[in-house]
Amino acid sequence: MLKIYHAQGARSLRVLWLCEEMGVPYETAEASFMKPSDEFKAVNPLKTVPAMKDGDVSMIESVAMMIYIMAKHGPTDLEVKPNEAGYGDYLQYLMFGEAGLAAYGNPLVGTRFMAPDDQKENWTAGYLKKTMLKRLEFVGERLGGKQFVAADRFTAADISIAYIANGAKYAGIEKEIPTPVMSYIENLWQRPAYQRAAAVK
Ligand SMILES: N[C@@H](CCC(=O)N[C@@H](CS)C(=O)NCC(=O)O)C(=O)O
Questions:
Q1: How would you label 2-11 residue by residue, b for 16+ Cβ within 10 Å and e otherwise?
Q2: How far apart are CA 173 and CA 160, in angstroms?
Q3: Distance of CA 85 from the midpoint of ligand 1 (Å)
Q4: Whose CA is nearest to atom 13 of ligand 1?
Q5: How far, in Å, CA of 119 to CA of 134, rounded?
Q6: pLDDT tens across 107-148, in order?
């Protein structure tokens, strides 16, 4: 069975949500980057959350885990196939959720919680904040009022993007998420699979 090293509110939510949508069984184990257990450190020496074990396979990137699970446990409509309209958007937003959005949040979170007081509002923190908000505006414009980012249906790309509501909270910019993007995310949060995943401690 898949073992997902999880912390509530962390990117492991993406993986749990996907498993819940697909009905893929999984177990969780505690993951903490502040107080990592020996077991977690052995699976992920970087101590970032999540990590995943599947037999001998060991992974530490949340979007890669989603791709892996869909490939191993699919077929699933959560994936857009190359012959379908929306394939390019699907790939783009699947990656953009992490590489184009959430990744910018990490140094902002680090600065907010770990930098000395006189450095918390430094130039880089301002740049990261502006960059994330500009990218969220981009998502809102591209959505243009639609419910999903690709292929006119719910896909793993929506799971990837929706995580940013959590990332933005830790980065202290959750109130600045553009309204169209927050409405899109709140609509996704109505899904029972999301609610089950979000409740996992
Ligand atoms: N690209 C990785 C990022 C993982 C990541 O940075 N996770 C956060 C928690 S959501 C973390 O562990 N941060 C602590 C750190 O960066 O040291 C992924 O998508 O899994």
A1: bbbbbbeebb
A2: 18
A3: 32
A4: 48
A5: 23
A6: 999 999 999 999 999 999 999 999 999 999 999 999 999 999
Q: Is 49 in the pocket of ligand 1 (CB under 6 A)?
A: yes
Q: pLDDT tens, 37-92?
A: 999 999 999 999 999 999 999 999 999 999 999 999 999 999 999 999 999 999 99
CATH number of the 87-191 domain: 1.20.1050.10
Q: Assess whether the C-beta atom of 127 lies below 6 angstroms from ligand 1.
A: no
3-state secondary structure of 29: strand
Pocket test for ligand 1, best of 11, 109, 113, 159 (most atoms within 8 A of CB): 11
Pocket of ligand 1 contains residue 169 by CB under 6 Å: no
| In this structure, CATH architecture of domain 2-78 | 3-Layer(aba) Sandwich (3.40)
Q: Is the CB of 185 under 6 A from ligand 1?
A: no
Q: Length of the chain in residues, anyone?
A: 201
96, 139, 170, 190 from 165: Cα distances, Å: 14, 13, 9, 14
Question: By alpha-carbon position, which residue is closest to atom 14 of ligand 1?
Answer: 48
Domain boundaries, the chain: 2-78, 87-191
